[in-house]
């Protein structure tokens, strides 16, 4: 009985080692495909002096005041 338990334990450990190895390979591939230093699209690329357009197509003044009543 003890020999069977040791054999099962060794098989479970071996399966765990293989699973961890496969997950590490997958993670390394994901890191290689995604460059963490690149900014995400639409995040951090806005200009500080951005002025929003109004409904009629003109831009608001830089201070944010609008001549619309």
Instruction: Please summarize the sheet with the most strands.
Output: none
Tell me the total number of β-strands.
0
> What is the 3D form?
rod-shaped
Intertermini distance: 89 Å
Give the count of helical stretches: 1
Q: SSE string, helix = H, strand = E? A: H
* Beta-strand percentage range: under 5%
Mean pLDDT: 78
Key phrases:
46% helix; transmembrane helix; 69 residues; membrane; Secreted protein; transmembrane; 1 helix; mainly alpha
What does the model show?
By secondary structure, the chain is an all-alpha fold. Helices cover 46% and strands 0% of the residues.
Question: What's the SSE blueprint?
Answer:
Blueprint: H1 2-33
Quick summary of this structure?
Keywords: Membrane, Transmembrane, Transmembrane helix. This protein has one helix and no strands.
